[in-house]
Structure formats: C-alpha cells, structure tokens
Design a protein that fits this description.
Elements: E1 3-6, E2 24-30, E3 35-40, E4 43-48, E5 55-60, H1 63-72, E6 80-86, E7 89-95, H2 98-101, E8 106-107
Parallel strand pairs: 1-7
Antiparallel strand pairs: 1-5, 2-5, 3-4, 3-8, 6-7
Amino acid sequence: MNHVFVYGTLMRGQRNFHFLRESRFVGEFTTKNIYSMYRFDDYPAVCVNGRHAIQGEVFHIDDEQFTALDELERYPDYYQRMVIDTDYGQAWMYIVSQELCQGRPRLQGIWG
C-alpha cells in the first residue's frame, strides 16, 4: 500500500509539496472526528484520541517517495505511521505521540 494522507506542509501549494510533485494526487479527504492537530512552530502534527476531523489530501507514492517522506518526518524517531481508512482505500498517516503535543496550540483540524 503506497497511499499517504497528508494534512500540512506536504499538501498542494504548501512548502514541502515538492516531495510529492511526482506522485499521483488521489483526492481530498477528511478523517473521522478522533484526532487532535497541534501547531509545532511552522508545521502541524496530529495526535490520536482527539475530537476533531483532519482535512487533507491522499496521494499515491512510489517506494522512493515513501523513503523520502520517512526521512522528512524523521520516522520512526519523531513521527510514527498509522493506517487509516479513506474514501480511496487505506493510507498511511504520520502522527506524533500525545506527549509531544502537550503545551502546543491546538488547531481545528485544518492547516494553512
């Protein structure tokens, strides 16, 4: 499975979209109301066990792009990955631990 759900600086028009420029845009998607999004300086991060839906985009990526995203997101040391169900099938989503979110400004599930 090489679908990834992105919700921040990797979305179209955002500063890190160049990592996905060669990938195939699948569609926009909004998650269930079970997450929390927080501001980490100039990028967002999502934690599980919240009350908000997260708006983002789904892309089909190749293995090389997946490796580049893992490096950008410092997986597995900083971000973790989880599988979510989308309207386009399952996709990977990068999340952080709840401990990292403590004390950060909470957003309403929309970045940008």
